[in-house]
Design brief:
alpha/beta, Rossmann fold, seven-stranded mixed sheet, three-stranded antiparallel sheet, 27% helix, globular
């Protein structure tokens, strides 16, 4: 993120646009459960929530017993996430940092996830972030991503800003959030390299009595073992 977008997200979190009582999306919970980590060993499974925001996914992971780290570029988001964990009697290592330059050693995590962080980044920034996530994921580990498809309300709204990117939409789920970038099915393999994409799911719901669709990709990637 550049300084302008970072300032925007700081103001959104500080102003309560991203409340700290938000619940994790069911589609992400379902995919995490499919990774196959047994309940008895979750405390030894290290995971990273990249762009944690107010912490719905961090909360879920900590509640489920994983060894959790979380990072966001907004100081207000970090405070909100930490407050939620503290209020629930849960623990995670939450810190402020740059998603394009993660402050972790190579191959630290068994799995990483992002839940609608990449939508806020231009194509080049998303690619940088994914490469960093790949770096900190162990060989054989996983990366889960939730990001809007071209079928999502907001596609084409606002001012064109690049590759399936629009800025300053006046309506829709990304109104007031600066940049929104959408992904076509054909772009997924390119976007998520150097990971191997092992599964792509598409989830859709409607709002306003069916007037608008909220359509998202759930992309499950794996960092291949060394030959």
């Amino acid at each position: 993120m550049n300084e302008d977008s970072l300032g925007l997200w700081e103001s959104l979190h500080a102003g309560g646009r991203m409340p700290d009582d938000t619940w994790p999306p069911e589609d992400m919970i379902r995919q995490i459960s499919r990774l196959g980590f047994a309940r008895s060993i979750r405390s030894s499974v290290k995971c990273l929530d990249v762009g944690c925001g107010s912490g719905p996914m961090t909360y879920y992971l900590a509640k489920s017993g994983y060894d959790v780290s979380a990072l966001d570029q907004s100081e207000s988001a970090v405070r909100s996430c930490s407050r939620r964990l503290r209020n629930e009697g849960l623990a995670a290592a939450v810190e402020r940092g740059d998603v394009r330059n993660l402050p972790y050693a190579p191959e630290t995590f068994d799995f990483c996830l992002e839940c609608q962080l990449l939508v806020c980044l231009p194509w080049s920034g998303a690619r940088e972030t994914i490469r960093e996530i790949n770096r900190v994921t162990r060989k054989g580990g996983f990366f889960l991503s939730r990001t809007p498809s071209e079928a999502c309300w907001g596609f084409g709204l606002g001012t064109s800003a690049g590759r399936h990117e629009w800025r300053d939409a006046s309506e829709g789920p990304f109104a007031g959030m600066g940049l929104a970038r959408f992904v076509s099915r054909d772009e997924i393999t390119e976007l998520y390299s150097p990971f191997s994409v092992i599964s792509v799911e598409h989830t859709q719901t409607t709002i306003d009595n069916g007037a608008h669709a909220i359509a998202l990709w759930i992309v499950i990637c794996k960092k291949e073992e060394a030959l």
